[in-house]
Each structure stands twice: as structure tokens, then as C-alpha cells.
Amino acid sequence: MLRAIFRACYARFRHCAEKEKRMSRTSLQLTGKVRKNTWGRKDEEYVADFCLVSRRSLTESEHRIFRYHYLLGADWRLCCRKLGMDRGTFFHTIYRIQAK
User: Fold this and answer.
1) Confidence grade of residue 71 (pLDDT, cut at 50, 70, 90)
2) CB distance 59 to 28 below 8 Å
3) What domain count does the chain have?
4) pTM of the model
5) Is the dihedral of CA 25, 11, 71, 53 positive or negative?
């Protein structure tokens, strides 16, 4: 179940990150009982939150794999070569990352 949630979040991350920046929208949001308005860029905020949550919840070695594979888009061969690990260890770590 957690892996399915991760995949849905990652799909949204990719969608937000691959959009052309000039197509980004700002939105006005009401916050609190005082009716204060704040402007925000929801796609950019989602991308930033996705990266921040990964940095906070993963170990340093898991975050390196996450950064190469998910954020930079490297395939498993390049990640294994760059990180000096075998294929089995790489995929076991990927499964652990998705389950966190």
C-alpha cells in the first residue's frame, strides 16, 4: 500500500516538475479565521515539499540513491556504477525507500 502511495506522489512530482515554468499558476488561498489571503505556486510548493520530506525521512545513503534515481532520473545501471553497489542491493534499497 505504501509503495502505491509513493508511486502516486512521485507521478504528481514528475508532472509538476516537467511542466513548463511559464505555465505555472499562482493561486490565492484563504488561510485562518482572520481571512488573510496568501499567494502561492502550488506546483512548485509540491516539488519542494516532496524533496524536503525525502531528505527528512531517508538516511544519507538512501537519499543519495533517491536523488540519483528519482530526482535526476538515472537508470539502475548508472546508479549502481556511480554508487558502487550491486543490482540486488540497489533494488532492495529502492523498495525500502518506497515503503517509507
Assistant:
1) very high
2) no
3) 1
4) 0.79
5) positive
Checking phi first, is residue 4 left (phi over 0); if not, alpha (psi -120 to 50) or beta?
Answer: alpha
Residue 60 pLDDT greater than 80, yes or no: yes
Mean pLDDT of the chain: 88
Domain containing residue 26: CATH number = 1.10.10
Q: What pLDDT, on a 0 to 100 scale, did the predictor assign at position 24?
A: 64
Tell me the C-alpha distance between 36 and 30, whole Å. Answer: 6
* Residue whose C-alpha cell reads 556504477 in the numeric block: 81
DSSP line for 32-72: TTTTEEEEE-HHHHHHHHHHHHHHHHS-HHHHHHHIIIIIS
Q: Which amino acid is at 29?
A: Q
Domain boundaries, position 35: 2-99
Asked whether the beta carbons of 78 and 68 are under 8 A apart, the reply is yes
